[in-house]
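Morning F.,

Quick status update on the modeling queue. The single chain you submitted on Monday has been processed. Sequence for confirmation:
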Amino acid sequence: MVYTSYEMIRDCRAGLPEGWSYLITTYVPVIRKLLAHYSQDTPAQLEQTLAALRRPEAGWFAAMEPSPERWFVAELRQKILLEIPAPAPEIALDLDTVASALEPLTLVEKQAAWLETMRYSAAQSGPMLRMTPQTVEKIRGRAAELIRGKVDAWNRTLLSDNGAPLGRTAAAAATSECLGPKVFLDILDGRMTWRGREELERHVTLCWHCIDHFCRMVEVVELLRGIQPLSEAEAEPLRKLLGVRLDKPPMWKRWLGAS
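Structure tokens below.
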């Protein structure tokens, strides 16, 4: 039997050390990648982030249903970003203005523009969207000009400067028609028919909550690429930090040893 994110979430909800130990060993490398990208990957920042996840009053795991790994990492990403201070941009840009300005763009063009709010360069975004960095740059140039025509004050980094507030507004804008992460993962994994994709795109193209959600799932696929778990020597200080005490090897290690 294999210990997965399903069992980890269940055990973390129950306050069992096995779940927290697995989270530290398996997902601290993901957390560090997120911190390096959105803030700073320092021991102090990592400790602060782990402590926020562990806080009893936060009740994060109490509200989370057991779920597949990529779903979990997408939610973990949201939780971490809420803990990172976001300085107010010099020029504010709201989501309604972005939606109005970028309405002429296709779904994939909107994704290319939105990944700029997530601080991904054209060189990073190209492989994530399966296009060349030059194409991403061209799309972003057009998006910048469309936004420029809708605002009184503008600069070329307006989208990225407003990334945090735009992301939070989009994430909170879900409707009953919005799609779950499985749909986006089916697209990314090539499990959706062209007809199904066309129907999906009619909603997503007009919904910035779903565009943001889709981009987050694209990001998760990249985050998990090549991730290696922590060694015992690396994990033990973090377990001590969070007060996670294991009197015997965690269940998932015993399962691995027995397989």
